Amino acid sequence: MEVTKLIVTEKKAEQFSGDLLVFCVEQDKKNKLLKCDNPMVRSWLEQQGSLAEFSAKEDEYLLLYPQAALKEADGPAFFLARRLLLVGLGEVDDKKGDELRERCRQAGGIVAQQAAKVKAVKVMVCLPEILGLRTKAVAECFSEGVLLGDYRFLKYKKSDPKDETYQGLVEIRLGVSSATDAIHKGARQGQIAALAARQARDMANEPGNGWTPSHFAAHARMLAKKYSLKCTVLDKDDMKRLGMGGILAVNQGSTEPPRMVILDYRPIHASQILLVVGKGLTFDSGGISLKSAIGMEEMKYDMCGGAAVLGFMQAIGEERPDLRVIAIVPSTDNMAGGAALKPGDIITHYNGLTSEIVNTDAEGRLILADALAYGVEKFKPDYVVDLATLTGAVIVGLGHHRTGVLGNNDELVGRLLAAGERSAEPLWRLPLGKEYTRQNESQVADMKNTGGKTAGTITAAAYLEKFVGETPWAHLDIAGTAWEFTEKSYIPKGPSGTGVRTLLELVRRWKKEEKVEA
Ligand code: BES
Ligand code: MN
Ligand code: ZN
After folding, report:
1. Which of 145, 147, 204, 369 could cross-link to 495 by cystine, CB 3.0-4.6 Å?
2. CA dihedral (92, 98, 101, 105) positive or negative
3. Separation of 391 CA from ligand 1 center, angstroms?
């Protein structure tokens, strides 16, 4: 897809001659009114009295032909745009903060959906003035919502060259009364977040034969070049030399070589180090503990943690915060070839801990363990966050609406919860504790790789906990949200890109000197 131009403009809506002109309409229940900043639209709404199909409820919209609807009898049309879209915001006066941000994102998503419906390539959105939200944030969340909603993955749809598939938006104008620096910055922030999440979706949409560990490496190298990051790629020999028995074990049954991809963003002024680790399992067949055939194709998404982490690094490269950020993506597929890992095998991780393999389908923790132990030892980060499509159990517990978060540090978890709320990627904390850790005890090794039938998400995290030492750490289990995430206007079917915006929000709110209390 082409890069969509995003423009903040003071130009009047009446002069916009593109495809789709958008106004927002608020409900004012007390006065039984529909409120719109544009006087023409406002008076038109008043003239209509009540509209059966549009009461400006949140997520409601009305698509109009301005040439036909909004004009005086026999007079010229008020608007030059080909189509007019009214998007309902519902009642907003009593709402604040995160909720209003989400309203704007969702309204932005509707703009993208309706633009696709009428094949609009140039749209202008007149940003609403919302009591409880600065216009900067309105600009941010609208651009985020429109760009996230305007996502499609067409790479493999080339069957009919004559077919004129809609390719998405070419230009988005955000109409404001005064185009301040703050509003420009807001729009830009929304754009950075959305494009990073879309990049993660692109990786995830690639099939197992289109996105291998080497593709992760190549993508990271590209990012490194573009944003002057340091990229290191460990190959199989490096892993052998370093004793990364977890990722090597998972890779045994595959003909596709593994990679451990490391990206280091190191600004001049940085007092703290954040390490992010993402599971980059490019296809999870389960290995010898083979998964059942139904739905197995979805296991190409088992690299969504890695995709989120690299999407996030793209945003870091754009924003360049005063915080050193290091990303590690351990990557392999999990196959059942003749040399594959077997139940009962015992492996040795990077930090020397041994693990009895009970189920080869519990492979994510094996590759993450090496990456975490290596990253913590090598970079001595102040904080570690890992993201992984780790357990089916998290879907049983939280469904597709919240990411599970577990960690050894209340403040880090608290910050992540807040960042998730603000970016509408909500998280829910689950506990850790010695009772759960005990479920992973093995008769023959330091631990085993599954903790039994119960508390699967927690025992998986308890496994990882052994590899971060005392470092403040949080683990995000995105198995339920990386795809099939809560359906909304700006989250299309397929991979959501979840985690990218949460991490970005975490960094955006990072207070440089603030030290997380243990
Ligand atoms: N990648 C899966 C987890 C998963 C399952 C993600 C469904 C998304 C949807 C992971 O590698 C896995 O297979 N986990 C097992 C662990 C079990 C064997 C202890 C699971 O959750 O069943
Ligand atoms: Mn698995
Ligand atoms: Zn997996």
Report:
1. 204
2. negative
3. 4
- Name which residue sits closest to atom 3 of ligand 1, judged by CA: 391
* Residue 363 CA, ligand 2 centroid: distance in Å: 5
Distance 284 CA to ligand 3 centre (A): 5
Instruction: Say whether domain 5-156+168-199 belongs to CATH 3.40.220.10.
Output: yes
- Locate 497 and state its tokens: 């890109």
Q: Where does CATH 3.40.220.10 sit in the chain?
A: 5-156+168-199
What would the pLDDT profile of 140-182 be if each residue is shown by its tens digit? 999 999 999 999 999 999 876 667 789 999 999 999 999 999 9
Q: How many residues does the chain have?
A: 518
* Catalytic positions, written as ranges: 291, 365
Pocket lining for ligand 1, CB < 6 angstroms: 284, 302, 359, 361-364, 389-393, 450, 456, 479
Give the three-state DSSP class for 232.
strand
CATH architecture assigned to 215-408+450-475: 3-Layer(aba) Sandwich (3.40)
Tell me the pTM: 0.97
Per the DSSP assignment, residues forming a β-bridge with 356 are 346, 448
